Amino acid sequence: MAPSEQHKAKKRRLDDGAERADAPKSSSRFRPTEPREWTVSVAIPTSIITDCVTREQRTTIVGRIARALAVFSVDEVVIFDDSPMDSRAPNVDLDAFTGDTDPAHFMTHILSYLETPPFMRKNLFPLHPNLRSQGLLPSLDMPHHPYKDEWLPYREGLTIAGRPKSGKGTIVDVGLRDTVTISEEIPPKTRVTLQVFDDGRDPEPVHPAAPRTEAGYYWGYTVRKCTSLSKVFTESAFEDGYDLSVGTSERGVPVARAFPDVVASGTTADFRHLLVAFGGPRGLEYAAMNDPDLGELNVAGGRTRELFDHWVNVLPHQGSRSIRTEEAVLIALTALRPLWFSG
């Protein structure tokens, strides 16, 4: 058989396989856990992308972080700038590519884009140089990114212009063939979380955290940006801040020593809001050194660990001289997951 004929035959086989009705399909369906008020937050420094040379490298690294957040059901990601204050570019043009001028803006832009359900991204994220390499980004495939044939008691929606036939309320695009109507009056291009019913009642807007707190569904992550490490704590979105904090460092202690009761008993840790903080190539000490507020408190270098309840090395005796932060996130969340999940 000639090479061209072999290519055509191979293409036919691939095409036929793609169209087979009995081809295996994913049967995964999201099942809720117990309703929960507690949350898991992750803090990531901007220095993880400052050494990157290309837009594609920066985009890929942030995509890997986002994928880890989704896989481990992280509720909040905090991006903090750990660069020296005098090295930061003033008057950054946020309409231009910011991966090399304002990495915090770039990272939060990409992370917010990925967290948003795909069907509403076009309306909420105008064309921007930061998104030029979006084809390299992974699918997060979270519960609030449902398939069209998948029913969940909650759904994310985007309000659209126009009046319902009744003349009252708001039309909402929820990613289905047909839009839905809610009785509330909400401006267009507003993202809303809806509770949907299977008994014919109209959907109702609820708090964005309701799928988690009322039904136990993981519903994506929120994104927060800080100008320094200390502001990760002082600008917390939670009223009483984080009641359990973990700093990761190769100079920390193993997880089993940091949390002996959890490891021994197999029960979860007692907390409402857990924070796991990661350093960049130079560690969390570098972030503390460049934080003016911590400088005034003389918290830097070896005292950085005093900022956290626990100072943990998630992979003792590593085989490589260094572990990249995007790798450390996966390793740490695997090692620390027993703190919040005992199954």
TrEMBL record:
It comes from the Eukaryota. InterPro entries: Alpha/beta_knot_MTases, NA-bd_OB-fold, Put_MeTrfase-C9orf114-like, tRNA_m1G_MTases_N. Residues 13-23 have a biased composition (Basic and acidic residues). Residues 1-35 are annotated as: Disordered. SUPFAM superfamilies: alpha/beta knot, Nucleic acid-binding proteins. Belongs to the class IV-like SAM-binding methyltransferase superfamily. This is Uncharacterized protein.
